[in-house]
Amino acid sequence: MSSSSSLERALRQRLEERKSKSQLRRLTSFPSTSVDFSSNSYLSLSVVPEVQKAYIAHLEQLTASNPRTSILGSSGSRLLTLELSISTGINAPKEIFRCEEPGCDQKFVRADLLARHKKRHFTSSYIPRNRTFSLKSSHPELAATSSAPAPNTTSTAGAVPRTQFPSHTSSGPHDAAILLTPDSEPAPRLAQASSWPPSQPTMHGLDMNMGSKTAYYGREAVTMAAESSTMLPFDNGFQADGHLSENFAMWLFDAQAGWNELNAVANMPFLEGGLESTFSCNRCPIFLVMVMLALGAASLRASDTTSTYVEYGGFADVIISSVRWEIVTAEDANPPVALWVAQALLLLEYYETLFSFRKFHERAHIYHSATLTLLRRGSPLIGKAGTLERDVAAFHHAPAGLLFNSGFDANVGLFSCVPQPGDVVVYDELVHASAHDGMRMSRAAQRLPFKHNTVSPARRPHPLGYTPPARQSLGEILAALTQGASGQEVRAGTRNVFVAVEAVYSMDGDVAPLREIVACIKQHLPRGNCRLIVDEAHSTGLFGLQGRGLVCELGLERDVFARLHTFGKAMGASGAMILCAPVVKEYLINYARTLIYTTAMSPASLAGIRVTYDFVATEMADELRRRLRKLIGYTHGLFVSICARYGAAPRPLVRVDAGLPSSPIIPLLTSHPRSLASYCQERGYIIRPIVAPTVPKGSERVRVCLHAANTKEEVEGLARVVEEWVLKTQKEGLQETQPQVRKAHL
Fold first, then answer.
1. Residue 603 is part of which domain span?
2. Are residues 611 and 625 in the same domain?
3. Rounded to the nearest 5°, which phi and psi values hold at 266?
4. What pLDDT digit, counting tens, does each position of 679-696 carry?
5. Cβ atoms of 120 and 107 closer than 8 Å
6. What number is the average pLDDT over the span 338-345?
7. String of b and e for 251-274 (b: at least 16 CB within 10 Å)?
8. Which whole number is the average pLDDT over 334-352?
9. Above 90 in pLDDT, residue 657?
10. Would the pTM count as exceeding 0.85?
11. One domain for residues 608 and 699
12. Claim to verify: residue 596 and residue 521 sit in the same structural domain
């Protein structure tokens, strides 16, 4: 009891010490009507309805029970498996299940599909799939079948001439055909024939159970009657099944082209989908063919530079919009999803991700329960399953990536284990606290700070007016490391030097001169033993093409050893990723304690990351970034005008950098940050005071973080409240105190 009481007294004493220095932090709640200018959610993705809908869809997808889906490996083990596959893919079935009912030769790749099929044998209206005609009994004139007659055109009195198409002997039953390997020998099935009706039936007359379709394409040439159509005759015969399956897309769009004239359609995702050796257009449900037709048209339109296929994009969207509902409402779309539905929905998802010519918000409703069922159950033909890490790394032009629960964990894990004994870490004095914590835990021989954003020895006054602690420039420190006997290993390249900077600094909002830093490193350490680490926490989603970050914007991917991208700021999600070489990733998996000894990320976090990365590359996200940049300039102008009107005093109450800020972070320096923040919060504007030891003594401030969702009226209201506080404070006689220069307590 006494030891417990002494501990409580010690804790209370420490709290009283911080309280006496006005440094005690408390959690504060604000009314829902308050305007937030404090958080780092720069793009305001959490309030975008399209992102919310897509997030819910992806969350359902990831949280569904599926023993084959690996969300994350077990936490706490030294080797942490991080395969974030949505499903496990194979290119061919391991086992074929055959129906043994008399007169039925159906085969399936899953036992549950066979069980569902057998139940249908005991219904009075059931006809085996290999004997079912393409149209319902509402068209009895189409029910007649024959044994593959030669194609001919007939006409009757008062009827429009129509063409009869021959059938062919299939190489296998429909359900398993698209999954059979070249070594499979399925049993033959009955030949069938069909003819078109005198008039086109309505969609209500069609059999939407596409798993039962057997309307095959004929092998022989088909000639349309000249008197019944103005279209040019299509008299090219089809190749054999095996030949067609090699390049179905080219056959579909350019039947007269030679096999050496592959057009842009050949670069379709069919190989990734596992269709290269199993697909045959001669025994494919019509809806699946239509989806592939749309994919081919969209691919041609996307690669078109001469406007030759300008109408193909709209054509593809019309097909996708029409066929989607037919697929997801089919009987085979109910769990367990039939194989043709699985293929069609996978290709639909691919189309919506890469080729949709509709805006994001116009297609947010497409996430149907059948699509989610497919994605959470997995498909045997999904093939080459990808990972979230691989997708994010590819987006940022990096060879590999490793997920962490937070940016703090990522920084601590990287800096604590990668520097080896004897190495040196040189860092900007204003890097994140997590980098400092990681460096303290590392085995590096030296940790040397350099003056903020200063590459050369030239001394420049800080734009915000306060004097930071005297530091050497980066160039001076690197030059000193190569001098004397102690610098021999550095000069020889056997001793590593790590340089740690941030792309955008969280307190001042300024941008690192990365090009100058890279040039300085190459000048002083040309042997390549200097490793640059860039923290892109505040540049992710804002800088570079589609928000890829400052490193990608400057084209410095090859010059950076590791990058940290966080998902909790502009991306509006949670978590972080280290982008690095594969060997560094493997090393972190084995030695980063913040990765090994922690709980794996939740499905909700993974869904949030996936959705935000899908959205951040859209035109709508580009518009949010443009809007935010305009808002930054407008808000900064308001604060500059306030400082101009009330800055005549020797020590003005509020100071702001006169230069246009490069980021949404606008610091307002004041010696009364708590008073200003409290005044604004009481009037519905959430801004936070930043005081020592978070920032050096004398550089206290309130930090304004702008979001794309902020309106012009909101920032005008904030500026008006700040001006009111300046007038009120001047009347009360408070003066700006002379700043004291002290080293930040980190």
1. 388-615
2. no
3. -65, -20
4. 999 999 989 898 888 888
5. no
6. 77
7. bbbeeeeeeeeeebbbebebebbb
8. 75
9. no
10. no
11. no
12. yes
